[in-house]
From TrEMBL:
InterPro entries: AAA+_ATPase, ABC_transporter-like_ATP-bd, BCAA_Transport_ATP-bd_LivF, P-loop_NTPase. Coiled coil: none annotated. Gene3D superfamilies: P-loop containing nucleotide triphosphate hydrolases. This is ATP-binding cassette domain-containing protein. Belongs to the ABC transporter superfamily. It comes from Streptomyces bambusae.
Length: 226
């Protein structure tokens, strides 16, 4: 995949595959192109070259709406909610069935207690749970999550990752971009390192080397094996 903005190139031939029931962790320093990769995968940014396939079908020309209808959802950095709408209204946009919303409330009582409150007044952790919790009732084929634990307390991070683990168990393919390496590596099946818009390495979680991780986050070569 080759993509960028206003004629400039950010991604230079990035090739990734996210399989059902697996987690692909995309790591790299700020400016590496991780969010751009998420936007291309979700259909928010058109590709300059390359092909996007969903279940083997060429979906390159599909925009965000077409990708969503094909089961590809994006949880963007900064929470994917409508802050001016209530919790109930936010849930109803994705879950039209009242019983499905009731199941969310049973699972997350804090959301039930505040269902008439504007979503923008919730804590960061509550907003993230509101964004992700409905997916347990209707698991997407693919979930692209851009830094889902950003700004959250450690306890809430654990809850978010437990929820993501349930989605994986339900067969969802997850592409996760994170700044907290420890948490994401505990969940990942495959790890990809992005540097200056190029994929420097991709392989099983068990083969990730500490030196490679340091380089991915700090942009500093540590003298480890290539």
């Amino acid at each position: 995949m080759r993509a960028g903005y206003d004629g400039g190139v950010v991604l230079h031939g990035v090739d990734l595959a996210v399989r059902p029931g697996e987690v692909l962790a995309l790591l790299g320093p700020n400016g590496a192109g991780k969010t751009t990769a998420c936007r291309v995968a979700a259909g928010l940014l058109p590709a300059q070259a390359g092909t996007v396939r969903i279940g083997g079908r060429d979906a390159t020309r599909d925009g965000a709406v077409g990708r969503s209808r094909a089961g590809v959802l994006l949880a963007p950095e900064g929470r994917g909610i409508f802050p001016a709408l209530s919790i109930e209204e936010n849930l109803a946009l994705f879950l039209t069935d009242a019983q499905a919303r009731a199941a969310v409330y049973d699972r997350f009582p804090r959301l039930a207690e505040r269902r008439t409150v504007a979503a923008g007044s919730l804590s960061g952790g509550e907003q993230q749970m509101l964004a992700l919790a409905p997916l347990l009732q209707r698991p997407p084929g693919v979930l692209i999550a851009d830094e889902p634990s950003l700004g959250l307390a450690p306890r809430v991070v654990d809850e978010v990752y437990a929820l993501l683990g349930e989605l994986r168990a339900a067969g969802t393919a997850l592409l996760l971009v994170e700044e907290k390496a420890a948490e994401i590596l505990g969940l990942a099946d495959t790890v990809a390192f992005l540097s200056q818009g190029r994929l420097s390495w991709c392989g099983p979680r068990a083969e990730v080397e500490p030196d490679r991780l340091t380089e991915a986050y700090l942009g500093i070569a540590t003298g480890g094996n290539p």
